[in-house]
Amino acid sequence: MKRVVLQLLRRPATATAAGFVLAIGVIAVLAPALAPYDPLTQDYARTLEGPSADHLLGTDYLGRDVLSRLVFGARVAAQASLQTVSIALLIGVPLGLIAGYRSGWWDRVMMRLLDVADAIPGLVLAFAVIAVLGTGLTNAMIAVSIIFSMNFMRLSRALALGERERLYVDAARTSGLTQRNILLRQILPNMAAPLIVQSTIFMGTALLIEAALSFLGLGLETGSASWGGMLSGSTRWQFQQPFLPWPPGLAITLTVLAFNVLGDGVRDVLAGGTRDRTPRRRPRVRARRAAAQPSLAQLPDDDVPLDVRGLSVAFPGEDGDVEVVSEVSIRVRRGEALGLVGESGSGKTMTGRAVLGILPAGGAVTAGSIHVDGAQIVGRDEAALNDVRGSRVAMVFQDPMVALSPVHTIGRQVGQAVRNHAPTLSRADVRRRCVELLEMVRIADPEARLGDYPHQFSGGMAQRIVIALALASNPSVLIADEPTTALDVTTQQEILDMLTDLKQRLGTAIVLITHDLGVVADACDRAAVMYAGQVVEEAAVDDLFAAPRHPYTRALLAAMPTGAGGDDRLPTIPGRVPPMTALAPGCRFAPRCAVRTDACDAAPVELGAGVRCLHAGAAWQAGDAAHERRSQVQ
Ligand SMILES: Nc1ncnc2c1ncn2[C@@H]1O[C@H](COP(=O)(O)OP(=O)(O)OP(=O)(O)O)[C@@H](O)[C@H]1O
């Protein structure tokens, strides 16, 4: 806030406009003390006088003091602008926020209602409201608020649609925050900048509309001091007293101009980066525990916090559903790290997201089961999923900078995650736990860094904080989706070492999603290799590297840089991962496989003894040389 104010003051035009608006506000509040006369007292002996020592801005056709009426008019103008914009914000922003965030039928219904409302011209709507409720400033401004609220609704919807796709929202969902919390504490502050700008500009517009309605005699009762009314009254007498329209005319023009210049300035300053502008109230988080889920089927094996069986995920396509994950089964033990590895598009991320119930819009689990700590995830509603997310399973995303909310301090974000799972902790205990979490992820001087914002951290540091956020509730399962891809090699190694250490110390089951076999070798105990939505091989990492059984695994390993130097080009895998709408009828890897036979095309190949290949035994070894030769040519 301090930074924004300082930057605003450094811009002469914006500072002048802000000063002008502030002055109008002060005049409005102190009007009774500042006005030299009662604005309604008439003096027929002194009508239509020019400026004089007695009446600095002269008198009007009823002998009323123009300066006093101008001062009281500021009160009407301020009330009209504030009232209108506040009502419009209160109606438009929540509706737009919900429509944009929830999408689906909510959005469709609201947008159609908005279309209908848009079809009615604004002024006609204002006249209709005034006709029903009667003239008067409040009624007139209610009409204007309704029109403004539609505008705020469209703006908030568009902003929420954009924010909802950002990773910090996914991170908030995966840490178990309720929808209300996400909307009010995560998304809304990030929408603040454009809303503030729009509000400032609307204040000027509201003032102009109030003046116009008063000018037409539809605003305040005749006689009351309003700038529009003063202007309207002066038009009939301007030949006798040409000065009369000037004071209200200038007041309206300059105030509207000031609001617009201020709005532009605020927009420019906020566009350069936003800060926390939300009140520092402690969030009221509803206590929620697994006890609220009586239907959980406990799996017999307590040592396996993540058990995925036969998982399939599909998205609606032009010609029916497209399956992007097919019958994936993975089990991860406590203190074990499973690498989910494969080329881009092989379904790794969708598998991870399905575990947290955060598939992108349209995506759905079409078959299989997912048990986290014995709790079935598939088919559960959002409230039940919230109980599991964050507390039992958490996720770390690739780019830490977009996974953290840019407008909240680190202390606030980690603190919120802590409170979310331990609502009864005192402020001091929450702070202690935050420091402990930052220490756990090896952030130096954690006390001091709690007040910093994400942009004050390097990529590696920010990723540690994301991991601290994920660990806030001691989850049994941590899904890390390419957690080191956005980082340099040294930082990558530090993060992997830290994950390994946390896994051993806390007993967390980790799923490490990566396309990099080097990461698997470094940080995983077992690996599941995915191709075109299926797991094609699963084995202990040592076995996988020593004796890969699937031709795809073998090709991936051959394509790995060894660091041995030399001029030899790395072999590549011929062809590319097929689109999920055009899969081979048999083995999905067959079109790229060097050891393919007719049998491979005959029927889908099942996963047997950890590998999905008809030639997993000795037979394909013979073809391997041919495969590598072919790869090298590519
Ligand atoms: N929102 C979506 N709508 C439709 N299809 C999607 C959507 N998101 C992903 N997919 C499809 O799902 C498949 C699997 O994607 P996924 O992101 O899981 O792959 P990945 O192995 O994690 O790849 P990457 O490493 O590039 O993230 C891809 O074919 C992709 O096109």
Kindly give the count of domains: 3
* CATH topology assignment of the largest domain: MetI-like fold
Largest sheet composition: 6 strands, mixed
Separation of termini?
57 Å
The CATH level-2 architecture of the largest domain is identified as Orthogonal Bundle
Structural class: alpha/beta
The CATH homologous superfamily name of the largest domain equals MetI-like
Based on CA atoms alone, the radius of gyration comes out at 33 Å
Low-pLDDT windows of residues: 273-300, 625-634
Query: What's the total helix number?
Result: 24
Strand content: 5-15%
List the helices and strands and how they pair.
Elements: H1 2-9, H2 12-29, H3 31-34, H4 66-102, H5 104-119, H6 122-133, H7 137-164, H8 167-174, H9 179-215, H10 227-235, H11 246-271, E1 306-317, E2 320-332, E3 337-341, H12 348-356, E4 364-372, E5 375-376, H13 382-388, E6 393-396, H14 400-403, H15 410-421, H16 427-440, H17 446-449, H18 459-471, E7 477-481, H19 489-506, E8 509-514, H20 517-523, E9 526-531, E10 534-540, H21 541-546, H22 551-558, H23 598-602, H24 619-633
Parallel strand pairs: 3-8, 3-9, 6-7, 7-8
Antiparallel strand pairs: 1-2, 1-4, 4-5, 9-10
Helix pairs in contact: 2-4, 2-11, 4-5, 4-7, 4-9, 6-7, 7-9, 8-9, 9-10, 9-11, 10-11, 15-16, 15-18, 16-18
Bound molecules: adenosine-5'-triphosphate (ATP).
Residues 315, 324, 342, 344-350, 360, 362, 515, 580 line the site of adenosine-5'-triphosphate.
